[in-house]
Every structure is written in C-alpha cells, then in structure tokens.
Write a structure and sequence with these properties.
Elements (H helix, E strand, L loop, with lengths): L5 H11 L10 H7 L9 H9 L2 H11 L14 H8 L1 H9 L14 H20 L7 H9 L3 H9 L4 H9 L9 H12 L4 H8 L10 H15 L7 H6 L5 H7 L6 H21 L1 H7 L12
Length: 301
C-alpha cells in the first residue's frame, strides 16, 4: 500500500473516522496485556503502560474528555488525570481489548515507531519545562508528543503493507515534501476520539505549526517540531551551539535558550538508546541496566 496515493490516503482517512481501537506497540503495555487477568496489576505498572503507548494514551485521554466522563467539563490532557477520571476498570478493559498487530507484523518491527514517539515525548517535556510563559504543563507536552504520529499507527492497523513506507519515513526523519497524510489522518482520529482541540491541532500541525488556529495548539506543535529537529542524524555541535538547526525558529519563539540545546540533544540520544534496549531485550532486562527513566514522576504524583 502506497500512502502517497491519494486514493489510499482517502481510504485510511475514512478509517480514522470509524477506528475504535489500534494495536499497542509499547513493550510495557504488551507485557501487562499478557499477564493473568485474575489479579489487578499495581497502579505504577498500569500508569507506565498507558504513558508509553500512543494508542492507549490517546484513547484513554479522549474518552476522559467525552460526554460520558467529562461531567465537570474540564479538559484533561495527561494520562494520570485521565486514569483518575475513567477508573482502573475501564483502563484495564481498554488494554485487554486492544487488537493485535496485523499477522504479518512482528512486535520488533514496530520498535522504530515506538522509539520515535517515546523519544520525542521525553524531549518535548523537557523543552516545555524550559519554555518561558508556557500555556500548558510539561506533562501535557509529553502526552501530545507521544501521540503526534498516531496517524502512522492508523496506517499500520489498516494494512501491514504500510510498514515499509512508515519505516522509510522515520529513517528519513520525516523530511519528505509529501509527508502530510499521517498528520491529517491523526487529526481525524483524535477528533473522533474526543481529544481536546489543542491536541488535535498539534497533531495536524506538528510539521507546520502555522496550520494551528489556536495559540495553545501552535505552542504544542512548536514544542513537538523543535523536539523532532533535535533528532536529526546529521546534527552537529556547531549547529546546536549557533542555533542554526532546522527548528531554531521554534526554540526562539518558545524562548528556549540555545545554550540548552546540546543538553536536550544528548537527552534525546540517551532516551532513544534506552528505548532500543527495551525493544531488543525486554522490559525487565532493560530496566536493570537503565540509566534514564522513560517515565519521570512529578513530586505530587
């Protein structure tokens, strides 16, 4: 399946308006899903599963903002708040009911997509924490950044033949001029799942923040776009030090000092390497040697 085909793109975008579930790609979520259902997992394990999986995080957060749960009409844009609002029973049923990957796709083949989502999410949280006059909390940036490429996961659930195209785009750092379909598909899916407007706008505009009508949506999109720019393979220290990287304008508008960029770049590489270890060796083996926590708890958690 060629997602650059207008007809195929139309079919996947239609699928975004009817898709109720997507496969889970987080090793932590898969490990939990395979456990016995006769005992309730510890809360930290449930939170970790949802905070590391694009589908689970997006669906849970969207549901928490739906008419069935948002009785106080307050927007929820973090996994912890969403879990508190919908309850553990709903969350676990969502996890257990998640469909498997397409038969032709092995879990290891989704590692690059999961690694990309987690790395961008982790760095986005750090960028948001350094941004002056931020309209949203860093954990909101973490959530939206983790689900920003959910359009790719939608494509994969539609057809296993999209995997090679997705892998090529991630390898090419999503720099192609024709790489707009997954953002539009992700936006449609986010709307269907009742995600708040800033999230849907940021998903649509994460390669072009000027697409976002609202200030908060544009801010989130700039955080994600800037975070992605730090992952470029050809990025060198002079470009970081001078602030001449491709996402420099986003960091300037976010009021993130250029002197922070080398540390953010190093952080991105560490998180990416940790995700690779988890994908290759399993969650337990990787956790024994991990030097950087994928999930960082706030003091009030």
């Amino acid at each position: 399946m060629d997602t650059r085909s207008k007809y195929q793109t139309f079919l996947v975008q239609y699928h975004a308006g009817v898709a109720r579930d997507l496969p889970i790609i987080s090793p932590y979520a898969r490990e939990l899903a395979e456990m016995s259902r006769h005992r309730t997992p510890p809360l930290f394990a449930i939170a970790r599963a949802f905070e590391t999986d694009p589908f689970l995080a997006a669906k849970l957060t969207g549901t928490s903002n739906s008419i069935f749960f948002a009785h106080d009409h307050r927007l929820v844009l973090t996994v912890r708040e969403a879990l508190s609002r919908v309850g553990l029973k709903y969350a676990l049923n969502l996890l257990w009911a998640s469909p498997p990957l397409p038969p032709d796709v092995a879990p290891s083949q989704t590692a690059s997509l999961w690694t990309h989502c987690m790395t961008v999410a982790h760095v986005a949280r750090s960028v948001a924490a350094r941004a002056a006059s931020a309209p949203l909390q860093p954990q909101v940036a973490h959530l939206v950044a983790m689900i920003h490429d959910i359009g790719y996961l939608l494509q994969l659930s539609y057809s296993a033949s999209t995997l090679s195209d997705i892998a090529a785009r991630l390898q090419d750092e999503e720099c192609g001029d024709d790489n707009d379909a997954h953002a539009a598909q992700g936006e449609e899916l986010a709307k269907f799942w009742s995600l708040p407007i800033p999230a849907t706008e940021a998903i649509r505009g994460h390669h072009d923040p000027d697409r976002c009508p609202s200030g908060t949506g544009r801010w989130l999109a700039m955080v994600i776009a800037g975070s992605e720019s730090l992952l470029r393979q050809d990025l060198d220290h002079p470009a970081l030090a001078s602030g001449s990287l491709s996402g420099a304008s986003y960091f300037r508008e976010l009021h993130v000092d250029a002197e922070h960029l080398p540390a953010l770049r190093s952080e991105a590489i560490r998180v990416r390497d940790e995700c690779v270890r988890v994908s290759r060796h399993g969650t337990l083996a990787a956790s024994r040697g991990a030097h950087l926590q994928l999930i960082r708890s706030d003091k009030n958690d």
